[in-house]
Every structure is written in C-alpha cells, then in structure tokens.
Amino acid sequence: MTEVGASLLDRLAALEEQGLVAIRAAGDSDALETARVDYLGRNGRLADAMGAIGTVEAKARREVGQRANAVKTALLAALEDETRRLSDAEAAGKGPRLDTTLPARRSWVGGLHPVTRVIDEIAEIFQDLGFTRVEGPEIETTWYNFTALNIPLDHPAADMMDTFYLHDDVVLRTHTSPMQARVMEAHEPPVRVLVPGLAYRRDSFDPSHAPAFEQIEGLAVDEGIDFIEFRSSIQHFVKQFFGKDTRSRFRPSYYPFTEPSAEVDVSCTVCSGSGCPTCKRTGWITIMGSGMVDPAVFEAVGIDPERYTGYAFGMGPARIAMVRHGIPDMRLLYEGELDFLEQMA
C-alpha cells in the first residue's frame, strides 16, 4: 500500500478512537448532538476523511473504503447506545433538572358527582330505618320489569315507544322497581331494601328529562306494616334530607304495583313555598311516587298477601339534586362539564 493509503488508514483509526471518546463523554443531549455533528455530520471529520479516499491508488481504495464504513458503523452504534442511556437516565430522574421557573400547572381535585352524593345521603338516612342497599341488573326480562309488577304487556308503559327492547322479552329496565320482585323471590320477609341504579327510557334529552337516569327504589315488607308507618318513614326522610322546616304532603295517585298510591310533594326549598319558577308557582315540588304494595305483586312472587303488607317508593336523585342546588337544566348533570362540576364539589 502506498504512503497515501497508509496515512488515511491511520487517520481513520485515530478518528474512530477520538469519536468514541467524545460520544461517551457527552453528559447530556446537547453535548451528544455536538459530538454527532462534529464526527458524523455532513461536513464532519468522517465525511472529510471519506472524501480523501479518491486520492488513494485503485488497488488500496477498497480496503480504505471498508475501513471508513467500519468506523462509521462503530460511531453510529456508540451514538445510539449513548442516546438510550441518557433517555433512561432522564426517565429515572437522573437527567437534567426541572426548570422551576416555569409556571406550575393548576392541580385539579376530583370529587363525588352531585347525584352520587345525593344517592349516598338518601341511603344513609334509610339505613337508620333498617334499609339495606342492594343493586340489580340493568338488563331485565319483561316479566320482572312489567308482569311481576302488575303491569300487563299491553299497558302503555310497556310500549316500544317508551321502552328499549333488546329482544322480544328482554329490555333495558325502565325503573329500578324490578328489584322488588327479585328481592321478594330471594328473601323471606321481613325485607327492607333500597335500590339505586340507572334506568332507561325513550325520553328526549331536555332540561327535565334524560334517556338514562338514576332512580332509587325502596321496598319494605313485613307483618303489620300499614300506611301510618309508611307515611312516618317518608316524613322522616323529608325532614332529614331537606330540613326540619320542610313540609310534605301525600297526593292520591295511581301506580300498577301499589294500592293505594300517592305522590309525595315537599315545600319548595327555593322559595320556601311562596311560589317560584322552580315549583311552577305552586309552592310544592314532587319528589317521589309511592304507595302500599299491591297484593297482586305479592302473589306473583309467592308471598301471602293476607299475612304480609308493605310499602314501596321510587324517586329520582337527579331531580332531587336539581332542587337542592337550584340547577335549572338536568343536562348539566350529565354533560361532564368540569367548570360546572367543580362548583358542585
């Protein structure tokens, strides 16, 4: 090999040694980038050396070229290893220190949804009266959702215009009342249960309705339960939840699974009963439907209606949350707007 070829090989050997030292000595990403440009950049030292290969005699050019490629491969491998090491160090907190002069991000503190808080509070009040909190399936058969509750399938409530049918006899439950039948089938009286959960109906999403909404069903069954005990229990709940000065009234109503039936109103908490838009100028707000369990429901689940009596009620915690907090539009409770939910926290 001529003197030119031998000299270039020595130059490549020295360049490899110096490049590896520079890459491995880089303490951060900026220093590593400087070493890369210096040795492997378009105008770097390796590019300059490879440009001189054309001056080597033809028979030695192949050997010199192979050596130059080997140097490039070694430097690239070292560069990749060092990049990975620095990345791992930064991920482990050993990299560059944080710039504490940057403005801090505002921390967001989560909290219970206002409807969840209402459900928990209602459950706690009825727990003092001996009620146990239970849950049930959201997909129900028409027997539990309608028939067992004395609602024939030709009743308007079972119409497809109101109910989400998944199959001929399978629906998304339209209320949490099916758990009345399920609980009485599985447990001998006495029974006192509170059933919170989602219900589904073909309602439009507007300020006072939602197609999926929370409901709380209550059921008490035992020997000797009468309307006086039923009314006393509901009045206890009203005083505990809305305040001792809140008045309540029972209005005759109709539900297929209770007889007699009543709607329960409370004096408007916004205007104290004087009349306002929230209570539609009546001074009263309806909070639940209720009544004594119809004997037909007892017979459907195999309980003797001559021996046992009971009462049931159903309320919408979303509506109750709206009354408590003066919320004008139910959609605010379901749209997940953080600014609104933070106000409720």
Describe this structure in words.
- By secondary structure, the chain is α+β, with helices and mostly antiparallel strands.
- It has 2 domains: 89 residues; 231 residues, Bira Bifunctional Protein, Domain 2 (BirA Bifunctional Protein, domain 2, 2-Layer Sandwich).
- Helix content is 41%, strand content 19%.
- The strands form 2 sheets. The chain has a 7-stranded mixed β-sheet with strand order 1-5-6-10-9-8-7, sandwiched between helices.
- A hairpin with a 2-residue loop joins strand 3 and strand 4.
- Helix 1 packs parallel to helix 4 and helix 5 packs across helix 8.
- The radius of gyration is 38 Å and the shape is elongated.
- The relative contact order is 0.10.
Summarize it.
By secondary structure, this protein is of the alpha+beta class. It has 2 domains: 3-91; 114-344, BirA Bifunctional Protein, domain 2. The chain is built from 11 helices and 10 strands.
Considering the chains and any ligands shown, give keywords for the structure.
single chain; 345 residues; alpha+beta; BirA Bifunctional Protein, domain 2; 2 domains; seven-stranded mixed sheet; three-stranded antiparallel sheet; 10 strands; elongated
Q: State the CATH architecture of the largest domain.
A: 2-Layer Sandwich
Number of separate domains:
2
Cα separation of the termini: 84 Å
Query: What Rg, in angstroms, do the CA atoms define?
Result: 38 Å
Strand tally: 10
Helix content: 40-55%
Q: Any idea what the shape is?
A: elongated
Class of secondary structure makeup: alpha+beta
Question: What's the helix-strand series?
Answer: HHHHHEEHEEHEEHEEEHEHH
